Amino acid sequence: MAIDMSIPRVENCCCCCSLKCGVIALSIVFMVPTLANLALSFFVEGNVSLRVARLTNPSVFGFYGAELIEIGDTICDVVLIILCVILLVGAIKGKYLLCRIWIFGTIVFVTIMFICAIAGSAHQGMNNPEIAHELGFLWASIAFEEGLLIYGVILVNSFAEGLREREAALPAYGYVEEEPSEPI
C-alpha cells in the first residue's frame, strides 16, 4: 500500500495576483531583509576581523555558544540569499528545475532553522530563566518566517508544476510531426 503525499496547489498568489508575480515577490520579500540583516551583522555588530580570528583560533579567543549562534545566523542568511536568487532567476526565466531546487533547499532550510532555534533556545535559556519572554519573541518571529516559507513552498510548487505541465503539452524542440504518406 503506497502513501500518496503531495504538496497542495494554489491557482494564484494571495487570491489576487498570478503565480509568477507572487513567486517573484516572494523571492524579493525574503531577499531584501536578509541582505539587510547580513549587512547589519557585519557592519554594526562589531569588528569583522575579531570574529574571523575567533573562528580560526578558538583556544585564544574563546568559543562560546553566542559566537556559534552568530555564525549559524550568518550562514543561514547567505543560504537564504542564494536560494532567493535561484528562485528569482527560475521565476523570471520560467525554469522548472530552479524552482524545484528552491523548494528542496527551503524545506531543508526550514528544518535546519527549527533545529538551530531549539539549540539556541536551550543554550540561552539553560542558565537564564529570566529571558523566557525574549525566547518567546524569538519563537514568534521564527514561526512567522517559517510559516511564510512554507506558504512559499506551496506557491512555488504550484508555479513549478504549471511550468512542467506546459512543457509536457508542447512537443520536444526540433520535433516534426510526420504526415502518414500514401503510396504513390
Tell me about this structure:
- There is one protein chain.
- By secondary structure, this protein is mostly helical.
- About 75% of the residues lie in helices and about 0% in strands.
- The longest helix is centred in the C-terminal third of the chain and has 38 residues, at about 130-170.
- Mean pLDDT is about 75; it is low at about 55-65.
Q: How would you concisely characterize the structure shown here?
A:
This protein is mostly helical and 184 residues long. Helix content is 74%, strand content 0%. Residues 53-63 have low confidence and may be disordered.
User: Mean pLDDT score, rounded?
Assistant: 76
| Distance N to C terminus | 55 Å
**Segments where pLDDT lies below 50 for 5+ residues?**
53-63
Number of strands: 0
Q: Main beta sheet, described? A: none
Class from secondary-structure proportions: mainly alpha
Helix content: over 70%
Number of helices: 6
Give the CA-based shape.
elongated
**Strand content range:** under 5%
Instruction: Name the helix and strand elements from N-terminus to C-terminus, one letter apiece.
Output: HHHHHH
Radius of gyration: 23 Å
Key traits:
0% strand; 74% helix
List the helices and strands and how they pair.
Blueprint: H1 19-43, H2 48-56, H3 58-61, H4 65-93, H5 96-126, H6 132-169
Helix pairs in contact: 1-4, 1-6, 4-5, 5-6
